[in-house]
Design brief:
Number of helices: 5
Number of strands: 5
CATH class: Alpha Beta
Number of domains: 1
Oligomer: single chain
CATH superfamily: Response regulator
Strand content: 15-25%
CATH architecture: 3-Layer(aba) Sandwich
Distance between the termini: 27 Å
Strand order of the largest sheet: 2-1-3-4-5
Helix content: 40-55%
Largest sheet: 5 strands, parallel
Radius of gyration: 13 Å
Order of helices and strands: EHEHEHEHEH
Shape: globular
């Protein structure tokens, strides 16, 4: 299962539709807190999360998962690119770090890599 976390309903829906059209099992959340409360981390093969969200940010979520012993492949997406955030995400093991708007192909490349290949780093498109 691919879990998508973004506080922007349009982004959540667009990414969900794309991945479902390709046959992926997808679940969506409006916040990092909702994802953590769902207890679906164990069933998640890859996490696609926004970087900046109210409450827990994507980086906060990554840290919580690490502290809880859960090492999920994470692809960060953000409208607010920051080299320091990119560096922190990658140091935490992120598979990808994409700036919005991003091409579907780049997200799919990162997803494919998250499920078995090398890292995808396309910070600015």
């Amino acid at each position: 299962m691919i879990s998508i976390i973004d506080d922007d309903a349009f982004v959540r829906q667009a990414v969900e539709n794309l991945l479902q059209s390709l046959g992926f099992c997808v679940t969506v959340f409006a916040s990092a807190e909702a994802f953590l409360e769902s207890e679906l981390a164990d069933d998640t093969s890859c996490l696609i999360t926004d970087l900046q969200m109210p409450g827990l940010t994507g980086l906060d979520l990554q840290q919580r998962l690490i502290e809880g012993g859960k090492r999920l492949p994470i692809i960060f997406i953000t409208a607010f690119f920051s080299e320091s955030a990119r560096k922190r995400a990658l140091e935490g093991g992120a598979i990808g770090f994409l700036s919005k708007p991003f091409a579907d192909e780049c997200l799919l490349e990162c997803l494919n890599r998250a499920l078995g290949g090398p890292a995808c780093l396309n910070p600015q498109q």
